[in-house]
Specification:
By secondary structure, the protein is of the alpha+beta class. The protein has twelve helices and 13 strands. It has four domains: about 30 residues, no CATH class; about 160 residues, Trafficking protein particle complex subunit 3 (Muramoyl-pentapeptide Carboxypeptidase, domain 2), CATH 3.30.1380.20; about 45 residues; about 120 residues, Transcription Regulator spoIIAA (2-Layer Sandwich), CATH 3.30.750.24. The strands form three sheets. The protein has a five-stranded mixed sheet, sandwiched between helices. It holds the Pfam family STAS. Keywords: Coiled coil.
């Protein structure tokens, strides 16, 4: 359901089904000035500070005058168009404007405003920011009228300071809004304080992250040491007799574990100058083909270092795997148990009786 009404020569259209309002054909909203809008602006001011807040409003007003200028341009002269815009502004609740002075040669204009919404908000909040948004709007309008790259609207009278009206003097400006913002950021103590706070927060975050990374590295190092200890416990190399080493393997022996064990055993053979090494497979239920090949290479490598390998405790399934890859078990010294291997090696290392 759409309802229409005309106020001040402008048509208002209400679409109740969609919850929309259009004024003079343009989308619009109604908002409570002294509560909702006041809360919105005061929240922004607290967040960015008064000086940046003023610049932001001024820039917003300046950048939002396309529609205003198009409306003014419909009339034969600027004065007629601006007078018509004054009527529209009053209809839309922007207060009563007066074009007090306009000097084209000097490029200077003076605009006076009564009962503007920015002033109403400041009265409610008990502050005096100035009507920066409206000033930006005037700057944008006269910037186009004067044909210059930029204008600035300087507010010279404030209702919030006890004056009867808000008044703006609009003239060309060499400093753009962006220049003013950059200068403010370079000189404003509050801004420097904000930057210092941000840098301190960043420094603490970096410190905390570095400490967290250090703790993580320490934990990873501890885990690595524990893994090494577990691997050593899972396959301990024990010197049970002078020149005799034993390597009891327990559990599942995969290719990685076999390769690691091979390296440790060969190093120990060299260190201990071992002549015999017993590899006991009593605790191993299964090895795959690749692991069996590793085990065979281990035996051959140990013998190249001068240590004869004796394999004990071979289960039938392991024997089948070795046969399947072509290992001639007859060429290996194999005994039924670790005890038999120990007895054999000890006998071999004892001095011969005369």
């Amino acid at each position: 359901m759409i309802e229409r009404a005309t106020l001040g020569g402008l048509e208002f259209e209400y679409d109740a089904d969609r919850g929309n309002i259009r004024m003079a054909g343009n989308p619009a909203i109604f908002i409570w000035t002294e509560s909702t809008l006041a809360g919105l602006l005061s929240g922004l001011q607290r967040m960015v500070g008064t000086d940046r807040f003023r610049l932001a409003l001024h820039g917003g007003g300046r950048d939002g005058v396309d529609g205003d200028w198009a409306y003014i341009s419909q009339y034969p002269t600027f004065e007629e168009g601006f007078t018509a815009l004054i009527h529209v502004a009053a209809t839309f609740g922007w207060g009563r404007w007066e074009l007090v002075a306009l000097d084209r040669a000097a490029r200077r204009a003076v605009v006076r405003v009564h009962h503007h919404w920015e002033t109403d908000i400041q009265k409610v909040l008990g502050v005096s920011w100035g009507a920066s948004y409206l000033g930006g709007k005037f700057a944008g309008i006269f910037q186009r009228h004067f044909g210059v790259s930029q204008c600035w609207a300087e507010q010279v009278a404030f209702v919030t300071n006890g004056d009867k009206y808000d008044e703006f003097v609009i003239t060309p400006s060499e400093a753009s809004l962006e220049d003013r913002l950059e200068h403010m950021l370079a000189t404003d103590d509050a801004t420097r304080a904000d930057l210092a706070v941000a840098l301190e927060r960043l420094r603490k975050e970096v410190e905390e992250r570095t400490e967290a990374e250090q703790r993580l590295l320490e934990k990873l190092s501890l885990i690595a040491r524990q893994e090494d200890a577990i691997r050593a416990l899972a396959a301990p190399i024990i010197e049970v007799w002078e020149g005799v080493l034993t390597l009891p393997l327990i559990g599942t022996v995969d290719s990685q574990r076999a390769a690691e064990t091979m390296g440790r055993l060969l190093d120990t053979i060299i260190q201990k100058k071992a002549r015999y090494t017993i590899i006991d497979l009593t605790g191993v239920e299964f090895i795959d083909t690749a692991t069996a090949e590793h085990l065979l290479r281990l035996v051959l490598a140990a013998e190249l270092l001068g240590a004869r390998c004796i394999i004990t405790g071979i289960r039938p399934t392991i024997a089948q795997t070795m046969v399947s890859i072509g290992v001639d078990l007859g060429k290996l010294t194999t005994l039924a148990s670790l005890r038999d291997g120990l007895v054999y090696c000890i006998d071999q290392t004892r001095p011969a009786k005369r």
